[in-house]
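The data layer described in this paper is built around a simple, fixed record for each protein. Because each token names a local backbone shape, the row as a whole describes the fold. We quote a single record here, exactly as it is kept in our systems:

***
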Amino acid sequence: MKKIGIDARLYSQTGVGTYLQNLLFYLDKTNPKKEIYYIYLLKKDINKINFKSKNIVKKVADQKWHSFAEQTSFLILLIRDNLDLMHFTYFSYPIFYWRKFIATIHDSTPLLFKTGRASTKNEFIYQIKHFVFKLVLWLQVNRAVKIITPTKTVKQELIRIYGSKISSKIQPIYEGVDYKLLETKENKNLDKKFGNFFIYVGNFYPHKNVERLIRVFGDVEGKYKLILIGPDDYFSRKIELRKNIFLLKNPPTPDLVFFYKNALAIIHPSLSEGFGLPLVEAAYFETPIIASNIPVFKELWTDSYLVFNPYNSLDIADRINQFIENRTIFNYSDIIKKYSFERMTEETLKIYQKCL
């Protein structure tokens, strides 16, 4: 029986974690019979997920990404398991792994913007780490037998950076709405606390441009609020809030559904994205989108959102005020049909079969 490995060490992280949670959820629903899947998880995550299928096996891999242990003991673990195919689901992987593997590259942001957890280090250490990161990613891109990207935009960015020789092995597959949001009812009790609000959902890394949004929203009419929703980490703790701006860290899913369903609009000022899961989730709940004019959003939403220049504070303010005056409504019912984690999983399994 063929053995396929899936790197799920980022299972509890935002972004990639949502990708992994949905990939594994829908993989389990297929109840695989012809292959056995080894799912590599951090020790702290091993009991967060249980599979019904007997052919999906959890394996403890307690080596953090971008670490020396990843390059040594995680490598040894994978070699011992003697996999027919390995799926690395993040930028980082053991560079001396010589067996067949595919890679999901979610975006090119770390190559375009020096950001992430490493930027909490001093500048010299960060420069070294960033150089090593670029080397590891270059090796991953060139050695993978297949590369999955969440959009055509990311595919084109990788070709621009690494050359046309990799074009034929890159397959864009759209993602979708988190299955937990599809299954959860909103917390209606929040009606008593929140009204007349916009939302931002996501991380607070510098390229997300949230600090500029906060400055802009400080001048918006006082009866409107901005709710920032994201993780509790170094970057969220650095945020300086202003009047009518609130920060909610890691809200439970029923609360998140409430904010999506009842927001006037979602505002997303990011300078770079690979896909933009919060916008897809907002569109599912028919929440209007006000967002950056970056290529990936143009690919996904064409003209079905209010567009601004994310580097121009006046332009962001104009679009927010335009929405307040006109309450623009968009119909996302046809667009949202293109985005599905279940379909993404089906396409990913087809890639596994082709590679085997």
Remarks:
- The chain has two domains: 2-176+340-355, 179-338.
- The first helix runs from residue 16 to 30.
- The mean pLDDT is 94.
- Residues 2-176+340-355 form a domain with the Rossmann fold fold (CATH 3.40.50.2000).
